[in-house]
Amino acid sequence: MLTGLHLLLTYKCTFECDHCFVYSSPSAQGTFTFEQVCRALDQAVSLGSILEVYFEGGEPFLYYPLMVEGAREARKRGFEVGVVTNAYFATSEADAALWLRPLVEIGIFDLSISEDSFHAEDEQDNPGKRALAAALRQGLPATSICIERPAVEPGSSAEQARGAPVTGGKVKFRGRAVQKLSAGVRRRLWDEFTECPYEDLASPERVHVDAYGNVHLCQGLLMGNMWETPLPALVSSYEPSSHPLCGPLLRGGPAELARACGAAHEDGYIDACHLCYDIRKALIEAYPRYLGPRQVYGLD
């Protein structure tokens, strides 16, 4: 049952991180209007099963009034509200407290803050740590997002539970990570990747939605478009086994997707995400309804 709606408030970000799933950057396009935020929230109410709404990106604090008013509207509709940020605004702990105070007043239930080396190389000058301290000092529930950089011979690290928010562990090789971080990392044969280890495509508990209306089952893999077909209708008509991309993924993971779609591929890949992303990128022209937007694949 779908219980979480994550609004990609904007694809724009202050950073251009090497591991970013959605190719966010200062020049990225695609930001919600307030009308679109309210429209998405109203569709979530109509669906009847949504419990949590997250505001993320990109960097949602770049559109601070929109984020705050969107969070307020979500709380008015009875949703628990979370926010994900890189805390670029936390030039001091006192300043971070000012920025976070409206979220305290609104009563959000989670603030997830990136504070790893992708966002702050200097351990002593870390905006994420300052924001985390300011949040906790004000009684705002807050957690850290710390993603490990890949090594040529990767060691063990925390794994993400299927369908859960990414709050730690190793890089998943989709989005910009494929371009920036894959060189020299150990690979396995492509046909070993026989399942999707991170997303519950058969019965998704949360989806991401962008300003274009794309409803993402996984970043760049779409259920449909909620501006064209309202979310309740999309969810009720979603048949994962007959979805042209989710069907093969459920039957045999990214390896089966490659076989079923006849997509060209390399001999080896780092992880299941790497193979899946590579195949989907090759198929984007053939399945525009189910793959996109193009910028999430480093195109346009």
Description:
- With 300 residues, the protein is α/β, with parallel strands linked by helices.
- It contains 8 helices and 11 strands.
- The strands form 2 sheets. It has a 9-stranded mixed beta sheet with strand order 6-5-4-3-2-1-8-9-10. A two-stranded antiparallel sheet has the order 7-11.
**How many E-type strands?**
11
Q: What share of residues are in beta strands?
A: 15-25%
- The helix/strand series, from N terminus to C terminus, equals EHEHEHEHEEHEEEEHHEH
Rg for CA atoms: 19 Å
Give the low-confidence spans: 152-168
Largest sheet: 9 strands, mixed
Distance between the termini: 34 Å
* Proportion of residues in helical segments: 25-40%
Q: Identify the strand order in the major beta sheet.
A: 6-5-4-3-2-1-8-9-10
- Tally of contiguous helical segments: 8
Shape type? globular
Offer a concise description of the structure.
With 300 residues, the chain is an alpha/beta fold.
Comma- or semicolon-separated keywords:
8 helices, two-stranded antiparallel sheet, single chain, 31% helix, 300 residues, 11 strands
Write the layout of secondary structure elements.
Blueprint: E1 4-8, H1 34-47, E2 52-56, H2 64-76, E3 80-85, H3 93-106, E4 110-114, H4 127-137, E5 142-148, E6 168-170, H5 176-180, E7 188-189, E8 206-209, E9 214-218, E10 221-225, H6 231-237, H7 246-261, E11 268-269, H8 272-283
Parallel strand pairs: 1-2, 1-8, 2-3, 3-4, 4-5, 5-6
Antiparallel strand pairs: 7-11, 8-9, 9-10
Helix pairs in contact: 1-2, 1-6, 3-4, 7-8
